[in-house]
Structure formats: C-alpha cells, structure tokens
Amino acid sequence: MAPRERRLAPSDEVVITSVKEALTILDFYNVARAKYPPLHHFWYTNNYYNETVYGNVEGFTKYSLRRRMLTGIDKIDLSVNLFGVTYPSPIYLAPGGGGTLIYPGVDGNIALAKAAKTRGSLLIRGGGNLQPVNAARGEPVWGNLQGPVALDPKAIQRFADAGCPVLTWTIDNMGGGNMPGSVWMQQMGVKDFDREHHFPCNGCHTGVLRGRVKLDDPMSVIGAVGSVKIDAPFPNWDDIKRVRDMTKNMKLVLKGIVTREDAALAVKNGVDGVMVSTHGGHEDNSGRGAIEALPEVVQEVGGAIPVLFDSGVRSGVDVFKAFALGATAVGVGRAHHWGLGAFGQEGVESAIRILERELQAAMAQTNCTSIKKIRRDTLAVRDWTGPA
C-alpha cells in the first residue's frame, strides 16, 4: 500500500465479521465495501484518486500532539453547544445522501437517526420525508439543501414544516467535478443491479433522476443529484438575503467556506454559522484539504459565529486536531457511512463511539478536560512527513 493511501483504507486482508471486532473507523471500510454494489461503493469514494481526498486525509498529519504528563485528569466532558443546544457528543453526522444505497432494505436515514440519538450526536439530513427521521432522532434534525435548490421557497418551507432549527446550505459542490461513478451507475441500468445484487437500485437510474443524467456529460450529474437543472444560475452573495428571508426562524449555516475572503463575506451577509468543508473531496478538484483551510477561516471569523468542520476525519485524533485549530464542532461523512454499510445502526453507533474514545484519549494526553480547553498550543507542526 502506497504511503499516502495508508490512512485511507486498511489492508484488504483485514475484514472483521462482527461490530464488536471494530477497533478503528477503517475496520468498517472493507465490510461495507463487500456488502453494497461496487459502483455504489464508488459513489461514496468518488474522486478516490483525486488529490483533494488525499489532501483532506493527509492534511492532519502535518500536526502532532504536545503531550502533558502527570495531569491527574479523571473526568472529560465531550459536550458542545450549538445555537443554545447542548450535544453530548461533539461529533456530528454530516449531510450525505443515499442511505439506501449503503444499507439496502433498511431506511438508512432512520438507522442514522437512531444511532445519533443513542450517541447524542447532531444529525444533518437533506432529501425525503424528515418527519420519520425526526421521530427516530427524538428531536428535529438540521436540514440541508444543495446549490440553487436553496433559492426555492417550497424546498425551504419543507424544512420549516419539519421543525428544523437550522438549515445548512451546501455550496461546496457548485461548479462540480468529474464524477464518473455516477455516470457508470446510470449506464449499468436497474436490471443489471437487480440481477447481480438482488435488490433494486433507485439511485441515478430511476425516480426523479431518471433521464436527467446525460451519459456524455458528467457535469449533468451535479444538476441531477441536486434536483436542479445544470443550466440553473449559480447563486451568489446577493442571494443570501433572499435565503435569509425565507428561512424565517431557522438559523442559516453555509457549508463549504474554505477561504478567509468568503468567511468575511459570510459574516458580513449575516449568516449564523459556517462549515469548513470540501464535500469530502467528492466533487472538489482543488487539491486543498479542508484542515488546511480551517485556521484562516477561524481567524477571519474571530468568534463571531460558529465554525463547524468536516472532510477527511478518520480518527478521534483528527477530531482533536480540528478542535485545536478552532472548530466549534466536527463532522464525519464517510466514517458513519462505512459504519452504516457494514453493520447498520450498530455500525454507526460503534463508529461514533470509537471516534469519541480516541478523542478522549487525546484530550487526556494533552490535559484537556473539556472541548473548550482544546487550544492551538496543544499541537506541534511536524517537519517530517514519514518514509517515502
């Protein structure tokens, strides 16, 4: 395995058979990969060989922990507060579509909601009927809209009717990237998936996306998945007020802020929070990891609004590093999808538990008794990148 791939996936020879055997997030990867169709796997690792995925993951290796000794820590508080709500877990489940692509036969969103309730994690969801998801979570989840869809009053009203307290507007996938996996999925056709994998594929092949993906135009996938036409005008900063007016009593968080310039514009235009995210590298061909962007966004915001973070998190130590660089809360995408794909709700719960356990260990080693006490001086910048 090439050095930079080492943290992306475990050895193909290591495949656990029970959720109780999982020791790290990557233990779920091979199990999940074996359970769902290859092209669905490709969807969730799309741009797998793209530099942004590597940048997201390997960016964390720039930092190491400055350990403290004889601290006498006996209790650690993992809770975080977002917009007046306290979450026992500081790790949120980032928005990501297609739960049924990962765990056929079970509503993936319901499984995620139940796992989030068990672990006390914030859950962010997008499409579909959110009422059952809210019921499974035990409280309204945050809503998520992508790209130009956020300009549709009916789309926003759906989240308001569901009682969502916060709407995240995903802007980190506008402009798009090459997404061959999505096109291959559509080309393969429903019958091929039914015959080979014994369950109906309702992703790019059928339903609202049927006929909207042009096989000779990968960019059309962006429009289809976002439930908008690709020729729809991209939103701009002038649209923030329109969205703010439509969100009414909901907080508005922009997902995909990765520069100080855009962070300043976000604050200027009155958004309630930002998420530093590259969409997990899914549609981002910039090559710049989200963790690299986090410090400048935090510095520019200056505590005026919360700064949430996701992209590239594979361990609790990664979570710690993001908090040390100023994140208010830290999200995972692939990590909880791998857990879901491997063992359903139990897999998601185990994935969160593993991350929390690793985070607690890092906090104990650096004399941090709460998330608020994780500071920049708990990290050292490495000048060695390891063997070639």
Structural class, by secondary structure, is alpha/beta
Q: What's the β-strand tally?
A: 12
Please give the CATH class. Answer: Alpha Beta
Total DSSP helices:
15
Give the terminus-to-terminus CA distance: 12 Å
- Overall morphology: globular
| CATH homologous superfamily title | Aldolase class I
Helical fraction equals 25-40%
The third-level CATH topology is: TIM Barrel
- Major pleated sheet: 8 strands, parallel
Determine the mean pLDDT. 81
Parts with pLDDT < 50 across at least 5 consecutive residues: 1-6, 190-200, 205-209, 212-231
The Cα radius of gyration reads 20 Å
Structural domain count: 1
How would the blueprint of this fold be written?
Blueprint: H1 27-35, H2 38-44, H3 51-58, E1 63-65, E2 80-82, E3 85-87, E4 91-93, H4 99-102, H5 108-119, E5 124-125, H6 130-137, E6 142-146, H7 153-161, E7 166-170, H8 180-188, H9 190-197, H10 219-225, H11 240-247, E8 251-255, H12 260-268, E9 273-276, H13 290-301, E10 307-309, H14 316-324, E11 329-332, H15 334-365, E12 379-381
Parallel strand pairs: 4-11, 5-6, 6-7, 7-8, 8-9, 9-10, 10-11
Antiparallel strand pairs: 1-12, 2-3
Helix pairs in contact: 1-15, 2-8, 5-6, 5-15, 12-13, 14-15
Folded structure, characterized:
The chain has 15 helices and twelve strands. It starts with 26 loop residues before the first helix and ends in a 7-residue tail after the last strand. It has a single domain, classed as Alpha-Beta Barrel (TIM Barrel), CATH 3.20.20. It has 388 residues and is α/β, with parallel strands linked by helices.
